[in-house]
């Protein structure tokens, strides 16, 4: 909820952090409202569970169980879809990154700084490789010279021919390696959330059955 409020109230500063994705401003505003809605729903859901247990209300307990079950099923379905369509991730990221490299790199200080930092830290060049900068505004403004990160053998200038010889990998491959390295952490967090949801459903159903026996 806090992130949603930040994006909604001060979206410009949030978009500056995203650099190459800043062109999707309206989408991030929508994401802000979505985060606020999700946060508010979780708060209300927690209050519902507390009220159901405190008042020992069977209807509220059953409602709480059903809502948690729906959320759990939706999360499992989202995970399956993400795994099944992960091959489209490169195309989606490329659709966002390429316009920034072609049109904004070198002219927009925020985009330029983000990409320079990324290429320096990951020792990479562009999204796929040096060809991402060919026919770009940066290359045209600098007489056919590419960013120095795209060349390994010449520290002063970097021409397309030298970039071809250097064969520096694109940043996307490095990002994939980082994601794979942190896959266990992400999986652990997802498993922890799933365990909490299962526990909440188990407790609510236990209280429901206990009240059923108590009333009968």
Shape: elongated
Poorly predicted regions = 14-29
Strand content: under 5%
Q: What does the main sheet amount to?
A: none
Mean pLDDT: 78
Order of SSEs:
HHHHHHHHHH
Determine the number of helices (DSSP H or I, runs of at least 4 residues). Answer: 10
Specify the structural class: mainly alpha
- The span between the termini is 42 Å
Tell me the radius of gyration: 25 Å
Number of strands: 0
Share of helix, binned: over 70%
Characterization of this structure:
With 216 residues, the protein is mainly alpha-helical. The protein contains 10 helices and no strands. Helix 1 packs across helix 2 and helix 1 packs antiparallel against helix 3. The longest helix is centred in the last third of the chain and has 33 residues. The chain is elongated and about 85 Å long. It starts with a helix and ends with a helix.
């Amino acid at each position: 909820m806090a992130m949603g409020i930040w994006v909604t109230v001060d979206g410009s500063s949030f978009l500056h952090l995203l650099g190459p994705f800043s062109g999707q401003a309206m989408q991030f505003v929508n994401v802000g409202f979505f985060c606020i809605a999700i946060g508010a729903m979780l708060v209300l859901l927690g209050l519902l569970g507390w009220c159901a247990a405190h008042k020992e209300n069977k209807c509220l307990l059953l409602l709480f169980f059903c809502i948690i079950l729906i959320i759990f099923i939706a999360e499992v379905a989202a995970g399956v879809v993400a795994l099944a369509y992960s091959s489209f991730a490169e195309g989606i990221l490329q659709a966002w990154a390429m316009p920034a490299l072609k049109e904004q790199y070198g002219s927009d200080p925020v985009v330029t700084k983000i990409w320079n930092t990324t290429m320096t830290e990951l020792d990479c060049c562009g999204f796929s490789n040096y060809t991402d900068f060919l026919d770009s505004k940066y290359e045209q403004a600098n007489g056919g010279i590419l960013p120095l990160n795209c060349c390994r053998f010449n520290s002063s200038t970097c021409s397309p021919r030298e970039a071809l010889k250097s064969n520096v990998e694109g940043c996307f491959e490095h990002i994939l390696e980082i994601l794979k390295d942190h896959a266990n952490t992400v999986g652990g967090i997802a498993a922890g959330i799933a365990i909490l949801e299962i526990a909440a459903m188990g407790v609510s159903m236990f209280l429901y059955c206990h009240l059923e026996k108590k009333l009968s």
